Amino acid sequence: MNTKVKVLDSNNLDKDILAEVGQVIKDKGLVAFPTETVYGLGANALEEEAVIKIFLAKGRPQDNPLIVHIADLNEIEPLVKNIPEVAKKLMEKFWPGPMTLILEKTSLIPAVTSAGLESIGIRMPKSIIARAIIKAAGVPIAAPSANISGRPSPTDIERCVEDLNGKIEYIVGGEVSEVGLESTIIDCTVIPPCVLRPGGITLEMLKEIDEDIYIDEAIMKKPEKNFKPKAPGMKYRHYAPKAPVKIVNGELQKTVAKINEMVQNYRDEGKKVGIMATDETKEKYEDVMVISLGSRDNLNSIGKNLFETLRTFDDNDVDVILSEAFEEKGFGIAIMNRLKKSAGFNIIDA
Ligand code: TXA
Ligand code: MG
Predict the structure, then answer these.
(1) Mutation test of ligand 1: which of 156, 185, 201 has the most ligand atoms closer than 8 Å to its C-beta?
(2) What is the pLDDT of residues 256-314, one digit of tens each?
(3) N or C: which end of the chain has fewer CB atoms below 10 A?
(4) For the segment 231-252, what is each residue's pLDDT rounded down to a tens digit?
């Protein structure tokens, strides 16, 4: 397939490109597009024939449900059976934005989209380009992250091209994803609502709306065999670069010392190492490939750069990636959730 690649400017949206992209969705084709979390791979959420193509293009297991994206609040009504009060408050406060709400779906949404579940995840993205594309399509858009299943999610157009060129009709570029990690998912079919995936909207922020909201305990732990998570997608290996990732956890100085010791051992074995460091530590590693995710004082930059950095190490054919750990607090919960999954929960104490 010949994939068309175009870039949109959110300050000056090209109407012709939008019309063309909208038509691709209407014709049951696939479009990768920017959002503020990560790039999405979109299709008409209401057409089985279109949605099925997403699973094929990504190599995604069919028991993993998709998130449906809308551009305006009034588009939600036909999609869900009811909207609990707390969900209404969450929408008012955090939409458009990096938050997905799980609600009971209507029959308008086909079973492939929800992977057979009676509930559906709905999100109104903040990205102006994303919402313009949904409007141009005139239908809600089902969109998982625009990566080949298992790989780190793309946060810019080049990574979408890398994974999906030749497999889909259209790739739209725009800004680099501001959050860099996927949306916070909150199950609003239960009382109190439960966070199934941490993201840019942190637990502290959610508790301002309902202080009983909590994070599903299973999220941060290594899943046991045969474990069935509430968000089906959380059971698969995720965010994984080609090289194995190891997280070194502990007091910062000890972490640096441990990583340097490990680098030495790998070097003796003839292995190439990549280190995910921070501005505070990057000068402390010698004769090894180091990428700083940003300052520890600015977790937003750590989250924004995480997936891109994992992919950069792949570009450089490192044999192993060693990462510093982060405190599981605020946005740090989302960062550590993705990092632990990319490492297959391989954590070493410094
Ligand atoms: O930020 C995002 O949410 C991005 C952008 C593109 O919007 N999308 C995204 O989609 O991350 P995806 O498919 O990579 O992740 C969707 C997650 C999966 O873990 C899936 O199991 C869960 O949402 N999910 C979807 N519908 C669900 C439902 N009805 N109940 C429980 N979990 C659900
Ligand atoms: Mg994904």
Answers:
(1) 185
(2) 999 999 999 999 999 999 999 999 999 999 889 999 999 999 999 999 999 999 999 99
(3) N
(4) 777 666 677 888 999 999 999 9
Q: Using a 6 Å cutoff on CB, does residue 65 contact ligand 1?
A: yes
Domains of the chain: 4-220 (3.90.870.10), 245-349 (3.40.50.11030)
* pLDDT tens sequence across 16-56: 999 999 999 999 999 999 999 999 999 999 999 999 999 99
Q: Is 294 in the pocket of ligand 1 (CB under 6 A)?
A: no
Residue keyed to tokens 């501005």: 279
| Whether the CB of 67 sits within 6 Å of ligand 1 | yes
The alpha carbon of 121 and the centre of ligand 1 are apart by a number of angstroms equal to 7
Distance 144 CA to ligand 1 centre (A): 6
> Which among 340, 338, 47, 345 has a CA at the least distance from the CA of 183?
338
Residue in this structure with the two tokens 């997403």, named with its chain if needed: 54
Residue where the block lists tokens 């989250």 = 303
pLDDT in tens, 95-149: 999 999 999 999 999 999 999 999 999 999 999 999 999 999 999 999 999 999 9
The amino acid present at 262, given as its one-letter code, is M
Is the CB of residue 100 below 6 angstroms from any atom belonging to ligand 1? Answer: yes
Q: How far is the CA of 152 from the centre of ligand 2 (A)?
A: 8
